[in-house]
Amino acid sequence: MRLLRGARRVLLENWTGTSTVPSRGLYPHQWSWDSAFIAIGLRHLSVRRAQRELETLLSAQWGDGRIPHIVFNPAVPLDAYFPSPDFWRSSSAGAAAGAPTAVESSGIVQPPVHALACRLVHLADPRASARRGFLDRLYPRLAAWHRYLAECRDLGGHGLVSVVHPWEPGMDNSPCWDAPLARVEPAPPGTFRRADLDHGAAADRPTDLDYGRYVRLAADYRDRGYHDDGPPPAFAVEDPGVNALLIASEHALADIAAAVGADPAPHLARARRLTAALVERLWDPAAGLFLCRDLRAGHMGGGALIPERSAAGLLPLIVPGLPDEIAAALIRTASGDHFGLGTSVRLVPSYDLLGAAFDASRYWRGPAWFNVNWLVERGLRLHGAVDRADALRSAALDTAVSSGFAEYVDPYTGEARGTRDFAWTAALALDLLVTSGGAGTELVTAEREMAAEPE
């Protein structure tokens, strides 16, 4: 089968021996939520490699519990990616926050998909997982990660996690960030060099102005020792996608806790509190989806909702226990005019099709991404919209192959955008194929071939 062979090839070629790079050129290090999604697909080819993927990432965890969004490979030249290790200076600037000294990383975070990924990897071969003590070793690290988010990132004081940089929610240059970023003075153009433009078309990437603001925010966070207390940061946003993924991962962590003999009750209790806060703070009935909240806007201290419609607002579909009426509204919104799923487009776009800032080519300002669609497919299925989930799964599988496992695609045409042979596209397409029962005996052959490859 073409998809299975192609996915296996991408995951094999992007494997470094300890983890998987998202792509060999554009993203030559290990990324946090990429590795979680990659492990979910990789478990179908090699449970051992999927475990190692997550173990490698979590070995770079900071003492305060955070999992950095990039773990740098020291063998990669500094000029291959920016911001590079000498910009973040994690081992020195992050020393007070417990940054490890043996590895360099960034100081910001990405969405907490990790407990969900660990649980799925465990379930792929529970006996082998138990023999290796996989969950026993990772549970304390995952619990510390969730504790960091709950205790250090509730910047609004209402129970939700806040992000302090547009790179943290993963949807780097979403139009949702335009208004919060407008308050940020960009770093001067001559003070940094964008390595991303060596590998991607400028029309597909964030603008220089946006990049200058990203650099400013990252440098300011670094210069205050990556501390989350003190004066409020210039960028502070409650994002529905980040919080939905934390809720789903709290449920997964409760299952992991039970498996290792710990008490699952605290995780379930936190999931309930987060769900209530998510609905209270970010649900907009008029829009029919969840919106981001800018904590630096408004006049009453609670921030203000950002009116832009992003695919992040659909991701709470993955939340178990989401009120039925809200889940139904989200499903209507996904297939309505603003996202067009199953009508004007086959894959969920990253941003409102009718939005003034919509761009079918530019990064998170409109193109469809495979991780978003994997999450929406899972959410549709969770809330009973099985036919819609089946159609989305079929579209994702078709598009993954036809696009050459692209980083993202034009939501209308499916045309490849960004880099090709993108690891999470291959991994998540593989997961959708296997869980649909479409892999058959070819999967067994691919597993054996992967097992025979050197680590």
Automatic annotation (TrEMBL):
Keyword match Hydrolase: yes
SUPFAM superfamilies on file: Six-hairpin glycosidases
Record InterPro entries: 6-hairpin_glycosidase_sf, 6hp_glycosidase-like_sf, Glycoside_hydrolase_63, MGH1-like_GH
Record protein name field: Mannosylglycerate hydrolase MGH1-like glycoside hydrolase domain-containing protein
Hydrolase among keywords: yes
Domain Mannosylglycerate hydrolase MGH1-like glycoside hydrolase: 27-425
Keyword list, A-Z: Glycosidase, Hydrolase
Family: Belongs to the glycosyl hydrolase 63 family.
One Pfam assignment: MGH1-like_GH
